[in-house]
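pasting input
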Amino acid sequence: MFEYAPAPESRSVVDVAGSYGLFIDGAFDGGKDGNVFKTVNPATEEVLAEVAAAGPEDVDRAVAAARRAFGPWSALPGAERAKYLFRIARIIQERSRELAVLESLDNGKPIKESRDVDLPLVAAHFFYYAGWADKLAYAGFGPDPRPIGVAGQVIPWNFPLLMLAWKIAPALATGNTVVLKPAETTPLSALFFADVCRQAELPPGVVNIVTGAGDTGAYLVQHPDVNKVAFTGSTEVGREIARAVAGTGKRLTLELGGKAANIVFDDAPIDQAVEGIVNGIFFNQGHVCCAGSRLLVQESVADELLASLKRRMATLRVGDPLDKNTDIGAINSAAQLARITELSEIGASEGAERWSPECALPDRGFWFAPTIFTGVTQAHRIAREEIFGPVLSVLTFRTPEEAVAKANNTPYGLSAGIWTEKGSRILAVADKLRAGVVWANTFNKFDPASPFGGYKESGYGREGGRHGLEAYLA
Amino acid sequence: MPKSSSVKALAEPGRLSVRKTYKLYIGGAFPRSESGRTYLVDGDNVALASRKDARDAVLAARAAQPKWAGATAYNRGQVLYRIAEMMEARRAEFTALGVRSSEVAAAVDRWVWYAGWSDKIAQVAGGANPVAGPFFNISAPEPTGVVALVAPASLLGLVSVIAPAIVTGNTVVVLAAGPQVAITLAEVLATSDVPGGVVNLLTGRYAETAPWLASHDDVNAIDLTGVDHPDVAAELERAAAGTLKRVIRPVTGGVDFTADPGLRPMTALLETKTVWHPKGY
């Protein structure tokens, strides 16, 4: 492997303040109780900022602000709402370098990804939904679709700003107002987004950001004056929210966990498939709900493919997220690292064979080397549970029917991958997969125009595309 | 007084203003008419486009079309939004030419409206078809190609025929009615990341140039919205039949350009392509 000189992105392009408040009704404040929590850089364990922890009264204020803003906002002509969203899209484009560095600092993801994937998709998402704001009558939901009201939105830490965009852009385009809670370990980009809203002169109360831990989110989704709940996160929490919302009449969409099968047939071009497998499981440290975490490879090409995959994995660079050469950044938190470590140990103890390339990890921060398990059976926990880390479980199959049966043998159904040169096989297999997104000869592709969401216990509702409007229309 | 020197707000006492030369807009450049002709409009000498100018414009439009259609819908949408940004900044130029402020604003907003359609029209006008057999079958719209536009005289009308044609990937040759307003719009386009040749704009008399475009073998569609005489429209439609051009007929009594344009201005200039593929292991 070639040695690479460090190519660090400048940290000075982002100015992180020592402390941040809640963004309610167009202004920042410290929260009623004055409680705070710290957000750290997972690559160094350095504290980045203290952030206000919103209590019940703060959430009440945020929901009230959103309620007050709802009337005028929903009464605006769609073309005017569109122009606010176009402004937001433009400001994000203009500030994308700053926001990319911020995202890598707070989340640990490689700057290559925050710069080339997250931020371009964030801007594009606002641009896309801006265009819908004055075209809702054409979207196929009736001649005069109406907004729902106040949306309570809770997002995860794996793509903080992108998940915010997926939530806020369609909500605003359709005339709803929002109270959004970012994840406890990655609150900063949402607070910077609040500043973007101010720059865009978005009316106060249309977007409110309340930071905090799980209890803040629980209070928000259970708030009686919230009309619509949107959650992205674990299936476990998704179930709790579905229970809490039951009987309230609130609208609900859930984008939850996954255990995607990435199916490689014997006629697939091996090198392309290997790139797709690597992208599928190691993109964003595997902190991806649609990650291709189960590799199903046809038996006749398994040895060749695994040899090639291991060669490729040995070239992955793990380390400083701000280094432009880095492929795999830091694990987002100590808790997540502990979970990945525990499940990996269970994988080995249940009899699967563990392999990682030689890989020097930094002394400080949270790190996990890219790992594959071979000899995995469908009964192994690492084949059934979402690890949410850079860990790939490899299983084999002999026939397409067996591949489909194994792929569907999971309570999840978010995504799947198919690798074959035969078009008719792609389409036949895709038909039989119980998954909301199927990538063929590619993986982890996202676009604002393309709906995303799961079958079964991966949640319900779709985000993105024309379909993504439905969740926010009465 | 010439329209070009009517920007009163910028007049300096005791200083002679510099007037604008109104030329054609072809392939991203502003040439004079190859014929060397001009005609007088409100005191300005405006280029009088010839048959050869029209043919040059078709060549430029055809050359630009594959790349423009090949750009992502997202990219085309951003370019149209950029037009709105540039036009917003030049609103005073249009009002100085006598366009009402509200109409200029509506024209800017019309660009924004169509910018948003770039990556949505396929989802509204296309989709999967549930054929009775093991086949994947999907229909998607594609641009028809090079479109000749006989444009209405108003600024909002002009924008309302250009934007729906180009947003989907067509390129256009516009025969403009209000020449100073049209060329000012061309100056907006020229500074808006619109690739040269996507919009080509000719000033002059459409009665002279439109027949050549209607019968031109390398023009795919003709929009007759700005044709104000039914007999002329019928004659142009007959000429267009020679190459089976798609024709948008003028609306009796004119179009209300302030209304929601609907999908027709776009779909009239789209082809639908349906792709079949078998399914099976």
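fyi The mean pLDDT of chain A is 97.
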